[in-house]
Amino acid sequence: MGSPAIPARQGGHRHPTGLLRFNVAPPGVVEELLLGCCGSRRWAERVAAHRPYPTLDALLAAADEAGYDLSRADLDEALSGEESAASTSLHPHAPPAAHTALRAAHGAYESRFGHAFVISLDGVRPDERLDQVLAALRSRLGNERDEERAITADELRRLARARLVQLVSHQNLSAMR
Q1: 102-116: per-residue pLDDT in tens?
Q2: What is the pLDDT of residues 51-90, one digit of tens each?
Q3: Any bridge partners for residue 13, and if so which?
């Protein structure tokens, strides 16, 4: 017995089989997978509850909408599970001084704002990530708390979008069985 036929392209992205599996997976499984995209339980429940999604673009739009509706507590919950961009933005062979500079800048950020520094590096070449993260850290350290919270929420939405695309890609299909 085969899967229902669905178009080869959905919303400009090629992930029809992954999207189909996402749509039919048990709610609890999908919610747990969604928590890996954004650590807010409310966000995950909302995105899971609106299935099935006809296209990847529809899924991403629903994720954005749920992200815009996060309360302060929801955002805090999501940020509590985030790793610092400092730990994920360096090439393993980067010089020790780069690691030191990034850890120091991240420490200053976390001390000032009380949560991990998050930034979407989707579309940034690996060799440009360090410069991108350091520039953003320096720039954002000067923000007022409310301004930084809004920027952080936007970066978290961008991260969630990129993670959702990965989630419904063929490499992650086994996670939805």
Answers
A1: 889 999 999 999 999
A2: 999 999 999 999 999 999 999 999 999 999 898 765 555 6
A3: 10
Instruction: Give the Cα separation of 73 and 26 in Å (integer).
Output: 27
Query: d(Cα 13, Cα 96) in Å, to the nearest integer?
Result: 38
pTM listed for this prediction: 0.82
What value, to the nearest 5°, has the Cα angle with vertex 102 and ends 160 and 166?
20
HEC readout, the chain: CCCCCCCCCECCECCHHHHHHHHHCCHHHHHHHHHCCCCCHHHHHHHHHCCCCCCHHHHHHHHHHHHHCCCHHHHHHHHHCCCCHHHHCCCCCCCHHHHHHHHHHHHHHHHHHCCCCCCCCCCCCHHHHHHHHHHHHHHHHCCCHHHHHHHHHHHHHHHHHHHHHHHCCHHHHHHHC
DSSP 39: -
Q: Which of 112, 123, 108 is nearest to 147 (CA)?
A: 112
Give, in degrees to the nearest 5, the angle at Cα 120 between 123 and 171. Answer: 65
